[in-house]
Amino acid sequence: MTFSHKILHWYTKNKRILPWRETKDPYKVWLSEIILQQTRVSQGLPYYLKFTDRFPTVSDLANASEDEVLKLWQGLGYYSRARNLHETAKMVVNEYDGEFPKTYKGLLKLKGVGDYTASAIASISYNIPEPVVDGNVYRVLSRFYGVKLPINSTQGIRYFKQLAREVMNSGHIRDYNQAIMEFGAIQCTPKNPDCQGCPLNEGCIALQKNEINELPVKNKKAKIKNRYFNYLVILDPDDKTLLQQRKGRGIWQNLWEFPLLETKDIIERDELERRYDEVIDLPDSPEVYQFNHDAIVHKLSHQHLYTKFWVVKTNAPLKNGIDFRTLVDFPVPVLIADFIKTFKI
């Protein structure tokens, strides 16, 4: 039995029942793939169900507001995926008459769709023999064939794509691509894989050489940057507050947040009181107190955010103030969503 046949045989016995596996609709396949990028199935599944319930078709998604899309995405992270999701939906509706391209190259033209997503849609929706290569596939191939090229290097990416093409099962590409990804997710896991019960163990080079924990190889990530956020939770006598929308190309683009004072290090109340007028102009001398004594460490892929929330009570009514109770309607970073749930007026 060949490599691909063993993978398919394993899949028929062990695959999880998931809603996106019950459809060939390119919209739902695309939606699931975008949601599951850098996201575990257990975390992504509720979001997939929310999106397909709220936006049953690509037209429904295209016609939504960006705020609504971001709000529904809230808590899933990597918000550029949500913005690209919305832009791509509008692109499909406006430029492709509501129909997804039916070729691998055509799918690559969609915003936010790279090789992996295009390959997944092409194979699952249209049965096109195009191999998928995601983190799970890298792990299976690198271990089984003993490949030590870094999976995040140009040479490694090219090599693994070609290797995936050579070993794929073209006749059953729709199931095979899902099978090898599933195999990496629940059989050939990153840590403590069940090698004794693995159908590929006899031919696995990494197992033979005791290199399971060393593969796949990945070049070191960029150094983590520490940032220090001080959110000013302004409250007036009517329990109104202020939010601002993040602009530019940094983190959380187009999400809403409290006025932010970013500093070079963690600060205490005396410094905050001297500097809050750098970001907000208040007519009186407000009462300021620190909500969380220790900074909350919020970890992103290349940044760690050390965050303090400062409650700033003013006696002057806020111009353009927002009722604090309505903040739950705004798309905000999960860090701020957690604060809003915790804070009691």
Automatic annotation (TrEMBL):
PANTHER family assigned: ADENINE DNA GLYCOSYLASE
Presence of the UniProt keyword DNA repair in the record: yes
Function: Adenine glycosylase active on G-A mispairs. MutY also corrects error-prone DNA synthesis past GO lesions which are due to the oxidatively damaged form of guanine: 7,8-dihydro-8-oxoguanine (8-oxo-dGTP).
Domain HhH-GPD, chain residue ranges per copy: 35-186
Cofactor note text: Binds 1 [4Fe-4S] cluster.
Domain of life: Bacteria
E.C. no: 3.2.2.31
Reported cofactor(s): [4Fe-4S] cluster
Keywords: 4Fe-4S, DNA damage, DNA repair, Glycosidase, Hydrolase, Iron, Iron-sulfur, Metal-binding
Organism listed in the record: Maribacter arenosus
Reaction catalysed by this enzyme: Hydrolyzes free adenine bases from 7,8-dihydro-8-oxoguanine:adenine mismatched double-stranded DNA, leaving an apurinic site
The protein, known as: Adenine DNA glycosylase
Family: Belongs to the Nth/MutY family.
InterPro entries, A to Z: A/G_AdeGlyc_MutY, DNA_glycosylase, Endonuclease3_FeS-loop_motif, HhH-GPD_domain, HhH_base_excis_C, HhH_motif, MIG/MutY, MutY_C
